[in-house]
Design goal:
The complex is a heterotrimer of chains A (222), B (61) and C (250). Chain A is mainly alpha-helical and 222 residues long. In chain A, 85% of the residues lie in helices and 0% in strands. Chain B has 61 residues and is mainly α. Chain B has one domain. Chain B is 67% helix and 0% strand. The termini of chain B are far apart. The chains are: A mainly alpha (222), B mainly alpha (61), C mainly alpha (250).
Chain lengths: 222, 61, 250
């Protein structure tokens, strides 16, 4: 079982490395979107500081939508997904490995990038660790929800426009807890509660989400 | 009677709320029945051919 | 898992079509009587609220709409799950039929809530109210479900894929619900003057319960009607349907 997991993870990471621009684009998108906000608002440091947390989280959420369609698309189009399904490898493990690979290439860069951009929004440095921790707990949930959206639309020729509609409402709890943790940390208040809730969401998503993803992929392959 | 219609000064809120509710309920019934009838019409015209859903939609005039 | 024997009749489209046709007028009749009685009770018999005056009478349409909007989503997901697990086409047909009805009741809950909000909070839309946010997200879930269905050409695939979304959605509904409540508890906005549990008297409560029941019956009436249409669409090439349409020339 672990072999299967590692093989798929290794393969997907290699593929991602060769098509690195596909995963770099969302990060660039994130930087551009967050820098558009100061332009759109009347110049004022205080206002930016107030809305900064929200801008960062929503920006991260939107940018993650960009890389999401490719999550199963390539494997689906070239037939390798069908081969994997037919192979004796347990399909659930394969799905988990693919989600894990997606998290490594799209979640981890966000954990690093968002706190850096946060500095430009005058987020106090003490809050940066909390922001990174919140992202560390939130991005697995995000990857699972993205995978659900990608799997549901995998057999559609143009699923891209619809995925956001499916995934974003489901992301709302994560957004609530993530922004609150960051805001509380910025005000020097205890942040344990939202972080625990984020962790609970992650455990929940990681344990049940792959079932939905596997079921949706099976239907898509029929 | 007039005092009932005035709703204690809240007529501008109470009546539109009830109006929109009535509208949505009636529209729901109407659209459910219309789609049922249209589908029956289509079934009648398709005459049991293999894949009736591929037939052009017939609109009632 | 084995299904009880009587359940198999629900797999027979002609039987369910006939049942829906026979039950529909009764359920519809009960719904209209209950809603008429509840409206009379709510608008005429119930005394005005001592704080909100007569504006509180919107509760008699707002709360039932919100109730049905949530109940409908749960029924949708249960029907979708039954359809997915036992490959019961009629359960899928029921799930499809529910989506537009549920969405319209969600819209109604939001619209009546907004109208009520104006005299109570002084604004139509209160972004910080958790119940508004929840209903709004519920509306998005309904719309996402409908959009996903519409994107598929193959009905069977649309059924099965949207069923998964329905189940994922219903698992998330309580999470979204509690997270927006939690979110609001930390945003104590000064603008809301929430009336802490206005004491609701019996003559206020009875019409509300009647209305909730009436709306529930109304929902099932709509569901049966839509389900009939859905069955006709799915059974076009079958003999029983041809016989049915030949018997009753339109």
């Amino acid at each position: 079982m672990l072999d299967v997991f590692l093989t798929i993870l290794n393969r997907d990471l290699k593929l991602a490395y060769r098509r690195w621009s596909e995963f770099a684009n969302p990060l660039l998108f994130f930087v551009i979107v967050t820098s558009l906000f100061p332009l759109a608002l009347s110049p004022g440091q205080a206002l930016l500081q107030t809305i900064g947390t929200g801008v960062l989280w929503v920006g991260a959420l939107l940018s993650s939508l960009l890389a999401l369609e490719g999550l199963f698309r390539g494997d689906f189009d070239d037939g390798s997904m069908e081969q994997i399904l037919l192979s004796p490898a347990p399909f659930g493990i394969v799905v988990i490995a693919k989600i894990a690979a997606h998290w490594v290439v799209s979640g981890i860069p966000l954990i690093v990038l968002v706190p850096v951009v946060a500095l430009s929004f005058q987020l106090p440095t003490e809050a940066l660790a909390t922001l990174a921790a919140a992202l560390l707990l939130a991005t697995p949930t995000l990857s699972v929800l993205s995978a659900i959206g990608a799997a549901l639309t995998v057999s559609l020729k143009s699923g891209g426009s619809i995925i956001g509609l499916l995934v974003l409402p489901l992301c709302s709890p994560m957004l609530i807890f993530g922004t609150r943790a960051t805001d509380l940390a910025a005000n020097g208040e205890p942040v344990a509660a939202p972080l625990y809730l984020l962790a609970a969401l992650a455990v929940f998503a990681v344990s049940l989400g792959p079932l939905a993803v596997a079921a949706a992929l099976r239907v898509g392959l029929e | 009677m007039m005092s009932f219609l005035q709703m204690g000064g809240y007529a501008a809120y109470v009546w539109p709320a009830y109006g929109i509710t009535l509208l949505v309920l009636v529209l729901n019934v109407w659209s459910a029945r219309r789609s049922h009838r249209r589908k029956l019409d289509r079934a009648r015209l398709s005459d049991g051919r293999e894949d009736a859903s591929k037939q052009p939609t017939v609109r009632r005039l | 898992m084995k299904l009880p024997r009587w359940f198999h009749r629900f797999g027979s489209p002609p039987w369910v079509y006939g049942l829906a046709g026979a039950l529909g007028p009764w359920i519809g009749g009960i719904a209209i009587v209950l809603i008429a009685a509840g409206t009379f009770g709510g608008l005429v018999l119930a005394p005005p609220d001592y704080l909100q005056g007569d504006s509180f009478r919107i509760i008699y349409i707002h709360v039932p709409s919100a109730y049905v909007s949530m109940m409908a989503y749960v029924i949708l997901a249960v029907a979708a799950a039954i359809g997915f697990i036992w490959r019961l086409k009629l359960a899928h047909a029921a799930a499809v039929s529910i989506a537009p009805i549920g969405a319209s009741f969600t819209f109604l809950a939001l619209a009546t809530g907004a109208i009520w909000g104006k005299p109570t909070w002084g604004t139509f839309w209160q972004w910080t109210d958790p119940r508004i946010m929840f209903e709004l997200l519920l509306l998005f879930l309904y719309l996402g479900y409908m959009a996903l269905r519409a994107a598929f050409e193959d009905r069977d695939k649309a059924d099965r894929v949207s069923a998964i979304l329905g189940v994922v959605g219903v698992v998330n509904v309580p999470i979204i619900h509690y997270s927006v409540i939690w979110w609001n508890s930390l945003h104590q906005g000064p603008t809301i003057s929430r009336l802490d549990g206005p004491t609701i008297t019996t003559d206020m409560l009875v019409p509300l319960l009647v209305m909730i029941l009436g709306f529930t019956f109304f929902f099932f009436w709509l569901l049966l009607s839509r389900l009939q249409g859905e069955i006709v669409e799915r059974e076009q090439a079958t003999r029983w349907l041809r016989e049915l349409v030949e018997e009753s020339p339109g």
